[in-house]
Structure formats: C-alpha cells, structure tokens
Design brief:
This protein is an alpha+beta fold. It contains 5 helices and 5 strands. It starts with a strand and ends in a 12-residue tail after the last helix.
Length: 130
C-alpha cells in the first residue's frame, strides 16, 4: 500500500496549468476571467496584501473544485496507464494506492512521483509503516 499526500498542495497549484485544464471544460470567457481573478486575488497577512502567482485560496468555496480539476490529470493517467499496479483512492491532496505486492507499491510510488513532476507538485516524504 502507498499512503501519500502532496506537499503544500493548495499553495503550489500552477495557475497557468490549472487554467488550461479548466479551459478544456469551460469556454465562457466571463467564467474563465472570474476564475483567474479568484486565483490572483492575493493574500492578506499581518495587515498587508501580497499577490498570488501560484496556489489556490485555501478556504475559498471554489478551491476544492479547482483542486479536483487539477488532480483529475493524476486520476486519468492512473486509470489509463497504471491501474494494473493498484487501486488509487484520492481525497483532495491525500491519496492511497492499494497494491497486491510490495514491488507493485514501490513502482506505484515512482509512477505517482512522475505524474506529480508533470503537474509541478511534490509528495511529502513517505510515511513510515507502523
């Protein structure tokens, strides 16, 4: 079994990649503009505002939806290419891959890391087995 989560997921989502994925499903320019404005809204910290170039606003009502649009790529890659290694179960930035053997689990982890690299994301270091 592979138990992994994505490091600083909501803070590191690439805006341009996300928008290209959103554009696959949405063609209305007004909606796309609204989503881009949402992503670029910035952050208030210690009384000051700073711009957002990456990431999705945590706690924002649209953030879970955008996060799932982004990670749908992982789901599709897995279903099309690597499903024979194990069953992936994902919830937001956490995922588990249930494999039959230790060798399949090691290979599954490598494949997930490759997909994460394509998405400009990294996994937290592996959790120790208990």
């Amino acid at each position: 079994m592979v138990d992994a989560d994505i490091q600083s997921y909501f803070d590191t989502i690439d805006h341009e990649m996300l928008m290209s994925l959103v554009k696959r499903r949405i063609s209305d320019r007004r909606v796309l503009k609204l989503i881009r404005q949402w992503l670029k809204a910035g952050v208030m910290e210690n009384g000051g505002w700073s711009a957002s170039e990456v990431g999705s606003p945590q706690g924002g009502v649209i953030s879970p939806l955008l996060a799932n649009v982004y990670l749908h790529v992982l789901d599709m890659y897995w279903a099309e290419r690597y499903a024979s290694l194990g069953k992936i179960v994902r919830y937001a930035d956490d995922l588990v891959i249930i494999c039959r053997t230790q060798r399949e689990a090691q290979e599954a982890l490598q494949k997930v890391e490759q997909i994460m690299n394509k998405l400009k994301l990294t996994l937290h270091p592996p959790k120790p087995a208990l």
